[in-house]
Write a structure and sequence with these properties.
Blueprint lengths: L5 E9 L2 E2 L14 E3 L2 E9 L7 E3 L12 H12 L3 E4 L2 H15 L9 E4 H8 L7 H7 L16 H7 L3 H25 L9 H5 L14 E8 L4 E7 L5 E3 L7 H5 L6
Parallel strand pairs: 1-6, 6-7
Antiparallel strand pairs: 1-4, 2-3, 4-5, 8-9, 9-10
Helix pairs in contact: 5-6
Length: 263
């Protein structure tokens, strides 16, 4: 049985184009919007592959920079073929933005996916100074960090892409792809800590005892895990470092029947 298709994904969006009389605490009405936001670019790679395999950006012409229908069709196909999607802030941003553009283009939903959001993992399990990819890339990752896009600093990169500048598109591709690489590396560092991780063994090794986080069979039995209703064998993965326990209790039904439950 083949393992799950795990894809790390990142999108970049074009901003709204609006009329405004100031730059501080402005209330922008719907009739002040001259251009809707859209997806400028996306990058993605399958877990374990060395390079970013999927990318779409640019070459649409200055008057079609915001036309993302073809991009959305490709994105939908990518997600339709994925089982698990890894993102940084994807639950609140990337996935919802993709869904928004798909339905606006009249495109149907992709097949159900599981989303692992490294920002939400950071919030749940760690007390970092910052949960931003830039900070975690410096302090958690060993090699992959967020790109600074120095050739087009700050908002200039987005402004030049909206002008369909080929050099800006090339820089956007590097920036977008580096976010994917940094997010995947961050995920791999966090993976052994994620208690509710999708069970990879169900996809890859349903007939063998395997790590629920990485599907490795390199497991070492270490001690016992105790719950409110039973005693279980505890396992340590020698590949990813995650802990797990057996599903079946070591206690008999008669032994469990004698337990009392506090009220």
């Amino acid at each position: 049985m083949a393992g799950p298709v795990v894809v790390t994904l990142d999108i970049e969006t074009a901003p709204l184009d609006v009329y405004t009389w100031g730059i501080w605490e402005q209330d922008v009405g719907l009739d002040m919007i001259t251009q809707e936001w859209s997806i400028l670019s996306y990058s993605a790679k399958r877990l374990g592959n060395k390079r970013v395999e999927f990318h779409y950006t640019g070459n649409r012409g200055p008057d079609k920079v915001r036309d993302d229908r073809d991009l959305c069709i490709r994105l939908r196909e990518l997600l339709d073929n994925a089982d698990i999607v890894v993102t940084q802030n994807g639950q609140a941003f990337d996935i919802k933005k993709i869904n928004g553009r798909l339905i606006m283009h009249g495109l149907g939903p992709y097949s159900p996916i599981r989303v692992i959001d490294t920002k939400l993992v950071a919030k749940r399990y760690f007390g970092f100074t910052s949960n931003r990819l830039e900070w975690m890339g410096r302090h958690v990752n060993h090699t992959a960090r967020k790109d600074k896009h120095k050739k087009f600093p700050g908002f200039e990169l987005w402004a030049e892409c909206l002008r369909d500048n080929p050099k800006a598109w090339a820089e956007m591709r590097r920036y977008n792809s580096q976010d994917v690489i940094a997010t995947e590396e961050l995920y791999l560092h966090m993976r052994p800590w994620i208690a509710n991780h999708p069970n990879m063994a169900v996809y890859a090794n349903p007939e063998s005892r395997a790590c629920p986080r990485c599907a490795s069979t390199r497991l070492q039995q270490r001690g016992r895990a105790m719950s409110q209703s039973g005693e279980y064998l505890r396992w340590h993965c020698q590949s990813c470092g995650g802990w797990s326990r057996s599903k079946s209790t070591l206690l008999t039904a008669e032994q469990r029947s004698k337990f009392l439950v506090g009220q």
